[in-house]
Amino acid sequence: MPTELFLRGRVYYIRGTVGPPDRSIRVYKSTGARALHVAEAFQAQLEKTIWDEITFGKRAVVSFAAGAASYLEFVEPAPQDVDRVDRLVAHFGPDKKLNAIDQLAVEDACKKLLAADASNATKIRNVYTPLTAILTHCAVRKLCDKPAFQRPPEPRPEAPKWILPSVANELVAAAGDHLKPIMVFAFCTGARVSEMLGLVWERDVDLRASKVTFRGTKGGRDRTYVMPPRAVGALEALPSREGNVFRRPDGKPYTAKEAEGGQFKKAWLVALRKVGLAEQVLDDDGLQRRMGDGRPIWRPLFTPHGMRHTWATWYQGVMQDPMRLMVVGGWSRLSMVEIYAHLMSSEHIEDAIDFWGAHPENNFGAKPVQRLRVIARNAYE
């Protein structure tokens, strides 16, 4: 029989059935209302919800509030995330359906819940990300469609092209044993990865003279460099004195292909993650992207070539001589090294020298300007 309203005490109740004869749903429910017009509105809304569920399935009638409650119960989020979800539930109200949360609804939520000048990062953190998480949770349970929001562009922080000596020390400490000497050598000499992995003991290295020669460099000329003490120490600690200087963990030389990727970059990424120089890759829904075996995908924020930029930045900071930097670094034009002129502040100069292990009496291309000033001052004290 169709639904009808009746008084039970002072509150109106609904009883009856809704739907076609073969799939009708029996209803006996309090409206919670004492006024007839309020009870009638409740009755009409309840009948529509039941018909929608019968016609279109359960996913057409589940409210956002119910989906949010299920999500919070399942994930046990941090307090700040609970607050974000609560604000969204209050904004959408008790009757907003999950499938009604579309792009326009999300953009409207940003306007209503956030300041007019809120950044894209704020919108993503407070609206897009929690909404995506809730709807994805519900989609897995077939309560709604998978969300497909177009997020506002979020500017990625620019990856550092060079790092401070303190960070370089942390990176070296975090690296695998076969990668440590490569890193130390690069930070001490400014060698490109391909130049380092192509070094041959008998042809290119003279430990007695602390010299190394890079053959067939990018500039087309051989380049000889006087190594600082720490680079010499890194080479002296290597087990072999024949063939390729730097080798893979299995003792075999790196191939040209591996110099660009493969095992070298895998080990590099592991070290970056340990010191916070890598970030997780997210998909368009803000969810962590994973490889086929389920492992998360990471993006490096500092490249191996950044070691060359780092060395050049330190060298210019210590020497204050862009012409010498151009020569010893193997650049063909002065304009190519001018970018390093003002990158490192003077407070880190001593840290760079300490990293290299270079002292004024060492023949390190030229005596560092700061150390010369110290010698001159001490001579008159």
Name a few traits of the molecule:
3 domains; mainly alpha; 46% helix; hpI Integrase, Chain A; 3-stranded antiparallel beta sheet; 381 residues
Describe this structure in words.
By secondary structure, the protein is mostly helical. It folds into 3 domains: 4-56, no CATH class; 64-140; 161-381, Intergrase catalytic core (hpI Integrase, Chain A, Orthogonal Bundle). The chain has 16 helices and 8 strands. The protein has helices spanning 36-56, 64-75, 79-92, 103-113, 120-140, 165-174, 180-189, 193-197, 201-204, 229-236, 256-260, 262-274, 306-319, 322-329, 349-356, 369-379, and strands spanning 4-8, 11-18, 25-30, 205-206, 211-214, 223-226, 278-280, 298-300. The chain is elongated, with a radius of gyration of 33 Å. It starts with a strand and ends with a helix. The relative contact order is 0.08.
